[in-house]
Amino acid sequence: MISIITASYNNGSTIVKTIESILNQSQLDFEFIIIDGNSNDNTVDIIKTYETNFKNKKISFKWISEPDNGIYEAWNKGIKLANRQWVCFIGTDDILMKDYIKTYSKFIENNNNLEYISSIVHVIKNDKIIRVIDEGWDWDLFKRNMDIGHVGSLHNMNLYKRLGLYDERLKIVGDYDLLLRAKNTLKAGYINKLTVRMGADGISSNNLLLALKETKYIKIKHKTVSKLQSNIDLLIMFSKVILNRIKLYSDFNKY
User: Fold this and answer.
1) Distance in angstroms (rounded) separating the CA atoms of residues 70 and 171
2) By C-alpha distance, which of 98, 106, 187, 99 is closest to 139?
3) What CATH number is attached to the domain comprising 179?
């Protein structure tokens, strides 16, 4: 029913916890695909050591390692390899809750007409929760900001047939771009339960200016808001991020 896709590149220091959280799911009827970008650290060696573990649990496990042009090319490769109706994307510093597959599978049984399903995500830094993403998809909010927990959310294969794959020219916000294409026609669902602990050191958090620039570009491209509103949203988001970073730095320096 579900394909889990992970893009990796030189993530030997974090990928073990991610793989372990997938391997130790309470329900095992899923497949796991790793698309590695030709890592030159120990990432591939780690991936190889887990082949037997997945085989012993009878979990379909596929992986490739070859050069790519970024995360969205890797995701597109993963989608093309996937054999299940639903796909999700997990980063190499993200951890799935033990009942992730069970929770989503049960929800799908009663809501199989949907294209996209999200849930609660905790954003973690240094083992502390720095943000809780706990809102479902709402077009009036989403057209201005990516305010849902995309990590671990499910995408029906029919969504890609309708909208196409990820734009590989984008480096940070290709996931937002894809869902904006649907505008208010997206058939979205929400599970009010924590399913993923997301590492805060992902690519978008480390490339703030590029993320904001790409966000402005795709909102104007898809005509979800006016150019003026897009500029206002950019300034608001930039201010929030800077204030949050100042607060986070201040909190850590109290100890």
Assistant:
1) 7
2) 187
3) 3.90.550.10
Choice among 38-47, 51-60, 165-174, 200-209 with the minimum mean pLDDT:
200-209
Only one residue has tokens 């796991």, namely: 32
Which residues touch 134 (CB under 8 Å, ≥6 apart)? Answer: 120, 121, 149, 192
What's the CA dihedral at 7, 9, 14, 18 to 10 degrees? 20
What is the structure's pLDDT at 253? 45
Q: 247 in a domain, yes or no? A: no
Residue 117 domain flag: yes
Give tens-digit pLDDT for 126-167.
889 999 999 999 999 999 888 898 999 999 999 999 999 999
In a domain, 49, yes or no: yes
223 inside domain: no
Choose among 203, 15, 201, 12: nearest CA to 92.
15
Q: Number of folded domains in the chain?
A: 1
The reported pTM is 0.89
Outline where the chain has alpha helix (H): 15-23, 43-49, 51-56, 71-81, 100-110, 139-142, 157-163, 174-182, 208-221, 227-252
- pLDDT tens digits for range 41-64: 999 999 999 999 999 999 999 999
Could you write out the DSSP letters of every residue in 53-113? HHHHTT-EEEEEE---SSHHHHHHHHHHH--SSEEEE--TT-EE-TTHHHHHHHHHHH-TT
Domain range for 67 is 2-200
